C-alpha cells in the first residue's frame, strides 16, 4: 500500500513564498496526473492545479494563476507546488492527490498559514 506525503508547509508573511513537496512511497508517481488541493477552515476543498505525467502545461485555478507553479521531478519521484506572492486567503491545508482507476488517494496534508 502506497502513501502520499506532503511537506513544506508553515507560517509565512503575506507576499512570501513556500514550496510544497508531494512524495510517495511504494509508487512511481510518473505514471499519474498529480493534483494539488487545499481546504481552508470552514470551506470546501478546492482544486489548486494539476500536472500531467510529463510535466508539461500544468493547469491552475484562476485565483492562483501567475503566483503558483506546479512541477515534477520524476527521477526523484516528487511533485512540487511553488507558491509565491502568498495572500492570507491562501491559508489552508494543502494536499496532493492521484486517482488509480476509480479510487482517489490523498496525502495527510500540510498546513500553510499566511499571516503577518
List the total number of helices.
Answer: 0
Instruction: Report helical residue fraction.
Output: under 10%
Rounded radius of gyration (Å): 13 Å
Distance between the termini: 40 Å
Q: What is the H/E string? A: EEEEEEEEEEE
**Global outline:** globular
Derived structural class: mainly beta
Largest sheet: 7 strands, mixed
pLDDT averaged residue by residue: 95
Total beta-strand segments: 11
Fraction in beta strands: over 45%
Low-confidence stretches: none
Structural commentary:
The chain has 116 residues and is mostly beta strands. The protein is built from no helices and 11 strands. The protein has strands at residues 3-7, 10-12, 18-25, 34-39, 46-51, 59-60, 68-73, 78-83, 92-100, 103-106, 110-114. The strands form 2 sheets. Strands 2, 4, 5, 6, 9, 10 and 11 form a 7-stranded mixed beta sheet that branches. A 4-stranded antiparallel beta sheet has the order 1-3-8-7, with no helix packed on it. β4 (34-39) and β5 form a beta hairpin. The radius of gyration is 13 Å and the shape is globular. The N and C termini lie far apart (40 Å). 30% of the residues are buried. The mean pLDDT is 95.
